[in-house]
Write a structure and sequence with these properties.
The chain has about 200 residues and is an alpha/beta fold. The protein is built from six helices and five strands. It is about 35% helix and about 15% strand. A hairpin with an 8-residue loop joins strand 1 and strand 2. Helix 1 crosses helix 4 and helix 2 packs across helix 3. The C terminus is likely disordered.
Length: about 200
């Protein structure tokens, strides 16, 4: 079971989904769980299947003290780059919480706060602390819903299955049909490691 970061403070967990995708938004979630909250099923979203995540999404929203989910679209990502877009999504998610947390914990090793806040970056945080894992589930489920909706408009890219990530089929369809308005034009699709065009 994942740990609470501190049950004496109001702690907000933050995580994102879609940072490495070739298409669609990057989505960030911020969530504040009740002190002493426990749920052995909540874990890193990558370690759950879609059915489990959907159920946990509803459970987290029902049980949390506050939450917020923000998506930054592909055009904005291209304009400010994916790192800044991720920071923007996270900052907006934190700002839109109805309760001000005492502490913010963020999955990863870097963050640029828009306002003066007490935060800590934790590598692998979604596998250590329940509030970050909860945020990862909220972000993942919300973004997947967006990609499935977009996928109905652009069925050739198979977004319902790949959610915009660089699968073989997705790349083949980009080569065949070109990119659409929801693709990140600054992302190269040939390289295994995604790079930004500066």
């Amino acid at each position: 079971m994942l740990m609470l970061f501190d049950n004496k403070k109001i702690v907000c967990g933050v995580d994102e989904a879609g940072r490495g995708s070739l298409a669609g938004p990057v989505t960030a979630a911020a969530v504040i769980l009740p002190k002493n909250y426990k749920n052995s099923f909540i874990k890193d979203s990558k370690k759950t299947n879609s059915k489990e995540r959907s159920h946990l999404y509803d459970e987290i929203i029902k049980s949390c003290i506050a939450y917020s989910i923000i998506s930054i679209e592909a055009k904005k990502i291209d304009k400010i780059n994916i790192l800044n877009a991720t920071y923007l999504a996270m900052n907006l998610a934190i700002e839109k919480l109805k309760i001000n947390p005492d502490k913010i914990i963020i999955d990863g090793n870097r963050f640029r706060a828009k306002k003066k806040i007490d935060f800590e970056c934790i590598v692998g945080g979604d596998d250590k602390y329940i509030s970050i894992a909860a945020a990862s589930i909220l972000a993942k489920v919300k973004r997947d819903k967006i990609m499935c909706k977009l996928g109905a408009q652009f069925p050739m890219y198979d977004w319902k299955k790949n959610k915009g990530y660089g699968t073989v089929k997705h790349k083949e369809m980009i080569y065949k049909y070109g990119r659409c308005e929801h693709h990140r034009m600054t992302f190269k699709i040939k390289n295994k490691q995604l790079k930004l065009t500066i």
